[in-house]
Each structure stands twice: as structure tokens, then as C-alpha cells.
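haha ok so turns out i had the wrong file open the whole time. this is the CORRECT one, sorry everyone. sequence first:
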Amino acid sequence: MVYPLISRQLLADLRLVHGMFNFSMMLAFLYQGWMGLAIRRARLAHAPLPFPLIKRHRKTGPIIAILAGLGFLSGITLVLLDTGNILEHQSHVVTGALLIVLIMSTYRVSREIKGSDSPYRTPHAMLGIAILSLYLVEVFLGLGVLL
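then structure:
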């Protein structure tokens, strides 16, 4: 095969769209983390629980998890169309894959949270912090790929 499989201009545009989409995903995860932290603070302070925030946190989480997976797959597709070598930007793809594993783990742990004293709440929070930290690294690596 001859690479790239699509025009250079279209590829450049799609790379930019991929970057903007995943940056917006990072912002969505930051918002999700903020909601989770607000809920956790109220729970630990034995204050009234912010039920509208809890409902939004529970509804938004699975949606942004799926969208993050789509962002990862779009990045893989772009690299395959460009060079055919999935490890062209090795640190970026490995970090993205690790992010997806953490997101799937967080979703799985969240499904086990039952009741106010669930032992799964702290692992859920720690995984969320790891996701946010890794997203910052991923955006930095992605900027290196774009520039």
C-alpha cells in the first residue's frame, strides 16, 4: 500500500479535529471530576447530598466514557491511514490505551458502588484522579504530535 491513504490536507484537518475533540473530552472529564469531588465532600461532611449533581454525574459518566473510546479509535484510525504503523507516536498511543483501561476500570468499579458506605467509593475516586492526571499528559503528548 501507498501511505497516506487519504490526502495530506484531509489528514491534517482530521488530526486537528481529533485533537480538539479529545481536548474537549479532557474538559468533560475535568467537569465529571469536579462533580464527583463535590459529591464526595458532601458525603464525607455528612451534609445533605446534592441529588441533582449525583444524577448528572451518574448520567454523564458512561456517555463520556464511550466518547473517550471513540476518540481513541479515531486516533488509531488516523495513524493507520497516515503511516500504517500504529506505534508511529508510541508514547501518545500507549498513554491513550492506558487512559482507556483506566476509564473502563472506573466504569466497572462504579457499577459496584452500592450504599453510602461502599468500599468502592475510594478506588473510584483514585481512578478518577489517575484519569485526570493522565489526560493532562496525553494532551501534552498530543500537542507534540500536532506541532
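The radius of gyration is 18 Å.
again sry for the mixup
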